[in-house]
Automatic annotation (TrEMBL):
Pfam family, one: DUF3093
Protein name in the entry: DUF3093 domain-containing protein
Stretches for region Disordered: 153-184
UniProt keyword Transmembrane, yes or no: yes
Spans traversing the lipid bilayer: 12-31, 43-60
């Protein structure tokens, strides 16, 4: 089996053009405050608003996806790959209905609006009330193929472990019938 300790990693950061509008808006707000106040209060909005905008944008784009050590990590949530079921790649046109009218309220969702594609991963864990996960990813085909491969390997190894039980002789049907029927 190949080493899958760090099979996939992706950071859902904000694209460079996604930084422009918030920074321009923070600059315009700082300039508006600057025009109304002389002295220290004139430059203070620039010192506060521009770094605050940078910190917020950086924080929004810190989310990570990874497949490591047999688990799928989406943000802070993680799922063992043995519980990965059917995987659907959601393109630009499929993502909107999947996140809108077709969304199950019990589903786990990690949506980033600046990423046009997503994956929907069905869960096979009978103890988990979450039916599926939907999460944004820039490389949905690559991640889907990796998850299919790893979940198939996990299921195959689990079935092999179940098949390799201790060799216990199975009694004949006549022997078991004689042992269970009371003597007359």
């Amino acid at each position: 089996m190949p080493d899958t300790s760090n099979a996939y990693a992706e950071r859902l950061s904000v694209t460079w053009w996604g930084w422009l509008m918030p920074l321009v808006a923070a600059g315009l707000l700082a300039a508006e405050i600057h025009m109304g106040y002389p002295g220290v209060r004139a430059w203070l909005p620039y010192v506060v608003l521009l770094p605050l905008t940078l910190v917020i944008l950086y924080g929004v784009g810190r989310t990570r996806l990874k497949v490591a050590d047999g688990e799928l990590w989406v943000g802070e949530a993680h799922l063992p790959v043995r519980f990965v079921g059917e995987i659907d790649v959601l393109g630009v046109h499929e993502k909107r209905p999947a996140l809108g009218r077709d969304l199950d309220p019990a589903a786990y969702v990690l949506h980033k609006g600046w990423i046009p594609t997503a994956l929907r991963v069905q869960l096979t864990d009978p103890d988990d009330p979450t039916p599926y996960w939907i999460f944004s990813t820039r490389k949905p085909e690559q991640l889907a193929e990796l998850l299919r491969t790893l979940s198939g390997q996990a299921r195959d190894s689990r079935h092999a472990d179940l098949d390799e039980g201790p060799d216990v002789p199975v009694p004949d049907a006549e022997e078991s019938a004689q042992q269970t029927t009371p003597g007359v």
